[in-house]
Amino acid sequence: MLSSAYNTTWGKSMSDKTNVIFICTGNSARSILAESILRQAAGDRFNAYSAGTRPADQPNRFALDLLRRKGHNLSMLSSKNLEIFDRPGAAVMDFAITVCDNAANEECPYWPGELIRGHWGIPDPAAVNGTDEEKQMAFDLAFVRMQSRVLQFIDLPIGSLNAPELMQRTNQIGK
After folding, report:
1. 3-state secondary structure the chain
2. Number of C-alpha atoms within 13 angstroms, CB side, residue 18?
3. ∠ CA(107), CA(18), CA(62), 5° rounding?
4. For the chain, what are the domain ranges?
5. pTM over 0.70
6. CA angle 70, 75, 79 (to 5 degrees)
């Protein structure tokens, strides 16, 4: 259910936070970065979540090290299965944004329901082989790209756009 920030027929008050879930297969790197960036950048306006269809046991250590260096709170971060958001009492999402990179032929999960969907494909830094320095560079690049997209997202004039416009603008951020 979308908030009334988008359209008064959606049923939430303007004071309610917008729920955003970032989805990836493993929920260990890109979706974790996105969740943390959104929470830190606009936590007063958004509830940020992440999940995966085949989540890793835990977030990638390079992602956590990077977020720690950037001053992010890591206490709420964990790799989760997308199914936990389909249970009774789970938060109802307003946006579902996939962050896997289709160009690399990665499986990109789909979130059902009536919400705004977006795709922000970013190459998987966890797939980089090489030295720890090369891996960290891949995570740094993924962070910069994701941060740019999240900041563009929070600057969208959400209250003045209808659902199709929001979907178009959200997807445009990922191009």
Report:
1. CCECCCCHHHCECCCCCEEEEEEECCCCCHHHHHHHHHHHHHCCCEEEEEEECCCCCCCCHHHHHHHHHCCCCCCCCCCCEHHHHHCCCCCCCCEEEECCCHHHCCCCCCCCCCCEEEECCCCCHHHCCCCHHHHHHHHHHHHHHHHHHHHHHHCCCHHHCCHHHHHHHHHHHCC
2. 23
3. 45
4. 16-154
5. yes
6. 95
Q: What is the pLDDT of residues 92-143, one digit of tens each?
A: 899 999 998 753 445 555 666 678 989 999 999 999 999 999 999 999 999 9
- Which residues are annotated as catalytic? 24, 100, 108
CA dist list (Å): 69 to 79, 141, 143: 20, 14, 12
Residues 63, 33: contact at Cβ < 8 Å? yes
- Cα(48)–Cα(35) distance, rounded to whole angstroms? 5
CB 77 within 8 A of CB 20: no
- The gap between the terminal CA atoms of the chain, to the nearest Å, is 26
CATH code matching the domain that covers 16-154, chosen among 3.40.50.720, 1.10.260.40, 3.40.50.2300, 3.40.190.170:
3.40.50.2300
